[in-house]
């Protein structure tokens, strides 16, 4: 039965829409060249929060604990990726791999990390890659690293071995079957439209490994030092741009959270910290280093996979979890109501239609409570759990192994976050959206 699971998951994950299957880093996308600049809303207010986000108590600075040494003889010097190393849509993971905080080849296994952190909910499972290296590099906490990598194993990897790839596909544990796809093969399941700099799949012939220089320049030109309020405006631009140009624009449970959430990660995770500004500051040079971009507006050059942690860089002071990504995204949603929305365009541009979270979840999460407490993070994790059986059924008589594996890993996290019980998930509500095809099948 496990063999059948691998076969099914591998067969299905690449299928987004016609022309998308198998498209990867070295393919030749056929981009849609006609583009429309969108009109963008103004925020209802500015939050003026520090770059550490909505933190309580106030940020502090400890040079020894926060310095991330990537200098000579540190053991974390930059090493460019080789031809067989995987790199993908996440600049944080790419940079961590280039500096050896996670495996340089970009394929993560259970042996790469450990997570014995005690929490009120108990002890996290040892079987999941907890990415100790991401904690060292960025101060990523367990709800983020365990939750995000569990979803990585489900959609981008091979749960028989607990492996996943931060980039393209790799040989799975069962020879002769289609390979696990890596993050680059997870469009609309994990990798999503409306990203801060990555172009939408549809607009790039199915290739999700494209840094859209229009997006990067748009962000770059919003300031000389970046804040949460600036990236909230950028998230608004990216979504408006996708709605106005991509008839397949789709935001499923993870995508709706990722679009504002990853914009927030730019500020929360990439900012440099100091005694003078413990809340952090993000300059243009640091942004370019993390995004592997050189040059100036008009002559920017992006070198794929060369994302780099800058010299003299100090990470955030506190552990950052999935619930913190949720809090920041919620604040942005107050500034721009509806910035977190489930749904998509219905086959034509500017036809965005929302899906009511209350109907989707049998009332457990609704438009009001989704933005309270830890509910947004809960929704993302629990919707993933609920969606898995439908996504991997069909050829399988039993997917109990995967469902149990996921429940064992995510159980302590959802308990710690105080998540309500979710039993209903009407995934078929996404059927009207053509961009949901690969999410649904
Ligand atoms: C296990 C940990 C992680 C996983 C599984 C993960 C996964 C992903 C995925 C799938 C995307 C693509 C999202 C999309 O298409 O919209 C993404 C984007 C992103 N991630 Fe990560 N990530 C992780 C950790 C981190 C860390 C530690 C950072 C810190 C710098 C980070 C920063 C970002 C940013 C800024 C983006 C947006 C990229 C862009 O479009 O410009 N991530 N990540």
From TrEMBL:
Residues 74-327 form the Heme haloperoxidase family profile domain. Residues 1-16 form the signal peptide. Its cofactor is heme b. The keyword Coiled coil does not apply. InterPro entries: Chloroperoxidase (IPR000028), Chloroperoxidase-like_sf (IPR036851). GO terms for molecular function: metal ion binding; peroxidase activity. Keywords: Heme, Iron, Metal-binding, Oxidoreductase, Peroxidase, Signal. It comes from the Eukaryota. Belongs to the chloroperoxidase family. This is Heme haloperoxidase family profile domain-containing protein. It comes from Didymosphaeria variabile.
